[in-house]
Amino acid sequence: MSTKEPFTIEQFYKFLQQQKLMAGKCLKCGKIHLPPRPLCDNCFSQEFEWVSVSGRGKLLTYTVIHVAPQQFQALTPYAVGIVQLENDLKIPGMIPGLTQEQLKIGMELTLDFGSCSSTLQWPHWTRYCFKP
Amino acid sequence: MNGKPLVSIVSAGMSKFGKHEGLLAREIFSEAAKEAFSRCPKLDPKNDIKAIFIGHMGEAYEHQGHMGPAVADWAGLTGIPATRTEAACASSGAALRTGIYAVMSGLADVVLVGGVEKMTHRTTVEVTEYLAMASDYPFEQWHGITFPGLFAMMATAHMHAYGTTQEQMALVAVKNHYHGSLNPKAHMQKEITLEAVMASRPVAWPLKLCDCSLITDGASCIILTKPEFASKYTDMPVHIIGSGQASDTIGLYERKSLTSLNATRLAAKTAYKMANTKTHDMDVAEVHDCFTFAELMAYEDLDFCPVGEGGKLVESGETRLGGRLPINTSGGLKAKGHPVGATGTAQAYEIYLQLTGQAGKRQVKDAQVGLTHNVGGSGATAAVHIYRSDQ
Lengths: 132, 391
What we know:
The complex is a heterodimer.
Chain A: H1 9-17, E1 22-26, E2 32-33, E3 48-52, E4 56-65, H2 70-73, E5 78-84, E6 90-94, E7 108-115, E8 127-131
Antiparallel strand pairs in A: 1-2, 1-3, 4-5, 4-7, 5-6, 7-8
Chain B: E1 7-14, H1 25-39, H2 45-48, E2 51-55, H3 67-74, E3 82-85, H4 91-105, E4 110-117, H5 124-132, H6 147-162, H7 166-180, H8 194-199, E5 202-205, E6 207-208, E7 218-225, H9 230-233, E8 238-247, H10 262-275, E9 284-286, H11 292-301, H12 310-316, H13 332-335, H14 343-355, E10 369-376, E11 381-389
C-alpha cells in the first residue's frame, strides 16, 4: 500500500471517490483508525500505512430522521445508522430506501460508494451510503 | 457525606425561560444578572466581581460571537475579564467549572458564571442545523445525521439491549411537564399526558416531538466566591463540594458504548469522589434531559439505578416530586426549556433554590444535597457538580 498520501479525512474521501474504503494503520502500535488521523490516539506515533477495509458490516443502531436541516429536508424521512465493520471499526451513514420496519439491529449492510456533489466549495467529500 | 466546600454560591439569577420576542441575548441576560444582584444586597457588583465566564453555544443564532464582553457590558460589568466558554449544550456547565478554577486559583475572589441563548427567532429547520454543529461534521452532519438523530440512535440501541420502551421515555416528559407546571419561570407550564406524548409527530424515530426539549430563549447565572468569604455576602450560601468535567470522542460512532455516556460516568466519578458522597445522599438532582431518553441514560450513568433499568426507575415514580429522589424539579430541559448556553447554570440555579428553601410549590422538603448534570453535544462533554447547604 502507498504511504505517501496524508492521513487525513480529506484523503479518506478522495479514496472513496476511487471506490476504495481505506483506513490508517499505526506502524508503531498497530491500531487501525477509521477515519485516519495524523496522530495515533493510542501511542502518539505519526507513522502510518494505508490499509484497505471491507465495506461489509452489521448495523449497530439506527434512526429514521423526519426533521432535518434545509439541505436534507427533501429526503425526509430517511434512515441513518452506525455500521460495524471488520477490526471493530464503526462508521455512520445513510441507508436510503429502507423504512423503520425494514431496519434491524444486526442486519448485514454493504457500503455503496456514492458520488461527490460537483460543487466548487469546500468540502469536496463523497456521500457514500449503506445498502443491504 | 462530608466533602469540603470548593467554592460557595452566594447568589443566583435566571430570566424567564420562553419566547423573548424583540430581545437580544445580552438583553435577556441582564434580567438574570439583575435578579442575582438583587438577591445579594451586600454584594457590590462593580467592585466585588472580578471575572465573568459566559456559556454561549452559537454565533449563528444572532450573528453574534464574542458573547463574554457583550454580556458583561450589558450587565454593567465592563472592565473585568469576560470570557465565553463553549461546550455546546454544556457551555455554562463548563463556565461553572471554569469559574471554580478561577476562584480556587486565587486569581479572582468573586466570579459571575452564567449562560445565555436566544433561539426562538429562528425556524426549527435553522435551529436543527445550528444544533447539529455540536456534532461531528465530516461523518455525522455531512451524512444528514441530526442532533435528535444521534440521541435516537442511542435510544434504539438501548431499546434493543435492555427492552426500554417508548412509553418509558414518554413518562419522563409527563413527569417533567408536571414539574414545569409548578415553575413560574418554565417555558411550558402545562401538564401533558402519556397519550399526547406517544401521539406526537416523529422527529427521529423513536423520538417524537414531545420527547424533545424546547427551543427556548433564556439566561441564567450564579455568583461564586471562596467559602471563607461567603458570610460577607449571605447567611444562606450553597457550597459546591464536587466538580467533574470530562470529554469523549466528538463522533458518536467512535465510542465503545452506544447506550451510555462515558463522559458522564467519568465526570460523576470525579465529582462523587471529591464530594465524598454516594448517590443515596442526593436529595434532588437536575439532569440533562435534552431528550426524554437522555434522562433515562443519565439515571444509569449517574448510578441512580443499575445499567438498563432507567426505564423502570421513571416508572416507579421515585424521580417525581414526592418520590425518593426528585429529578428535574424545575421541569428540566423538557418543560423549563433549553436555551442551550444557559442550561448548565440554570440547573445550578434550581439546586440553589432547592437547597435554600426558595423553590416554592416544587420545594423538596429538607433538601440539603443536590446534583447537576450537563451534557454537551451527543456526550463529547459532560459536567457534574454536587452541592450542599448548611441549613
